[in-house]
Amino acid sequence: MTPAQYAQLMRLSSPALPVGGFSYSQGLESAVELGIVKNEADAGQWIEETLHTVMTGCDAVIWIVLSRAWRLQDFNVIRQWNQWYYASRETAEARAETTQMGISLINLIGALQWASGNEYTLLTKLDAPCFPTVHACAVAALKLPEEAGVTALLFAWVENQVMAAIRTIPLGQTAGQRLLSALIPQLDLAVRAAQNMASQTPPAIRTLAPQYAVVAARHESQFSRLFRS
């Protein structure tokens, strides 16, 4: 990649990207409330296991499928997998999260004129635009490599989870950096696995994560919350 492409990649994975990802914990806050995650070691285990199940087995695979469809301008495939992803969200908060972040990124894409007219029109016409769909569009429109794009998606998720752990357990900033140091090498395994699963026909998607689903659902009725999921 060129220096400009590296900078765009960092931009898409930055917490400063105005899509609202920092306001969601994706069930981690509930896991802390329930006593499942109590310290730095628990947080590392929770994030790593969720990375290799929920994120690698579903989100990253769907993102790669969508990325390839955007590059081929296959709008029927894009609509199909966007709908599939939305239907796979197991809680009202998860559905609200992915569409809120998706719409925010669509607005940013429009304001910065990243996408072509046809691409932007499709984005605005999706009934429930999911974040992986829109993120994959942004990566393709900026002509960033597929592997770099899915890595940015996963790293942004990992970093957000670490920041949520710092705020909810709570942990210190150095502990957060230790977590990132342990988790970043796992991205190699996650990206390779997602690429292999996405290249199968049909894509080999895994969505079975019962504890994660139950804990995330419990967050909807949690008495006091810092995060929206």
Automatic annotation (TrEMBL):
The keyword Chaperone is annotated on this UniProt entry: yes
The organism's place on the tree of life at top rank: Bacteria
Chief localization: cytoplasm
InterPro entries in alphabetical order: UreF (IPR002639), UreF_sf (IPR038277)
Entry GO terms, CC: cytoplasm
The entry's keywords: Chaperone, Cytoplasm, Nickel insertion
GO MF term list: nickel cation binding
Subcellular localization: Cytoplasm
Quaternary organization: UreD, UreF and UreG form a complex that acts as a GTP-hydrolysis-dependent molecular chaperone, activating the urease apoprotein by helping to assemble the nickel containing metallocenter of UreC. The UreE protein probably delivers the nickel.
Function comment: Required for maturation of urease via the functional incorporation of the urease nickel metallocenter.
Family, per entry: Belongs to the UreF family.
Full protein name: Urease accessory protein UreF
Source species: Advenella mimigardefordensis (strain DSM 17166 / LMG 22922 / DPN7)
Lineage: Bacteria, Pseudomonadati, Pseudomonadota, Betaproteobacteria, Burkholderiales
